Amino acid sequence: MSDISLVGESQCRVSSVLGRNTRELGKHHLFDGSAETCWNSDQGTPQWVALRWPSPVQVTAIVAQFQGGFCGAADTVLEVPQEGGGGGWQTAVPWPLEDVGTPQTLHLPHPLTLTSLRLTFPSSTDFYGRIIMYKLDVLGKKL
């Protein structure tokens, strides 16, 4: 069975939205399939996007598309909840993003079984720390 998009059944949270303008720049634009809309974070670091599923999923890859000049930098990481609970996050896989406007794919070395994940951008290619993301997809299997 091939991998499918898992974002449809997830809940999404983001660190910030530019000017709190969620209608035009909010997180829902990451999943609307339009090349004309985007999530635009406010300035400052770190920025992040977190997804949560109602039941476990197996993740094999993540696809993201940014606006050049407003990308997460080479220190971007995929995080999973800390073992033992506590509400914290731990790095699962680094994702050294490039400052380009084309889709970038993180192929995980081993599938991750989880109910939540977070992409954290400790820095940005933008001087002010803003992130502009047009697309986010998580590929894998429902369990």
UniProtKB/TrEMBL annotation:
Residues 1-141 form the F5/8 type C domain. The keyword Kinase does not apply. The keyword Cytoplasm does not apply. InterPro entries: FA58C (IPR000421), Galactose-bd-like_sf (IPR008979). Coiled coil: none annotated. Keywords: Receptor. This is Nuclear receptor 2C2-associated protein. It comes from Chionoecetes opilio. The gene is Nr2c2ap.
